[in-house]
Amino acid sequence: MDRIYATWRSEWVQKLAGEADERCPFCSIVEAGLKDSESDKQNYVVFRSDTCFVVLNLYPYGSGHLLVLPTRHLSDLSDLTPEEKSDLWGLLEKTIRVAKYTYHPDGINFGANLGRSAGAGIPNHFHMHVLPRWAGDSGFITTIGDTRVISESLEQSYSKLVNNWNEVS
Length: 169
Prior knowledge:
This protein has 169 residues and is of the alpha+beta class. It has one domain (9-164): HIT family, subunit A (2-Layer Sandwich). The chain has 6 helices and 5 strands. It has helices spanning 9-17, 25-35, 39-42, 82-103, 140-145, 154-165, and strands spanning 45-48, 52-56, 66-70, 107-111, 128-133. Strands 1-2-3-5-4 form a 5-stranded antiparallel sheet. The longest helix has 22 residues, at 82-103.
């Protein structure tokens, strides 16, 4: 079995371990949106529903890396209400369709990391990842150069995704 090591994450994960008591960044986005609708653009919120929202990952593994999460602060999938589960799953499906429509990837990764040891950078606010993937999108530069190559800015990704959100049913 081949292994790909992402040692660049070690410093980030250790930094987060020391910030466990700080304010949840997802809750900050929720609160900002309640106070000022313009903050969604600044925070890269692509869509909000009654109980969940979709936002670009500020530390993407690739272009179009999105997060789908409940508005309510909770750490485990089992804490979701039936309404939140239905809304989350519907938004997850729509987010995948929008990512496919926008990026025409070869595939999509989606899933959740439950707990810090499972890889969750923000373990106390449940969230799902949607990541468009292409053949050969992770090359030597990631492994050897300790660098990720993202082909577009967050602003470009945001603009494309927001513009396409209503185009996709």
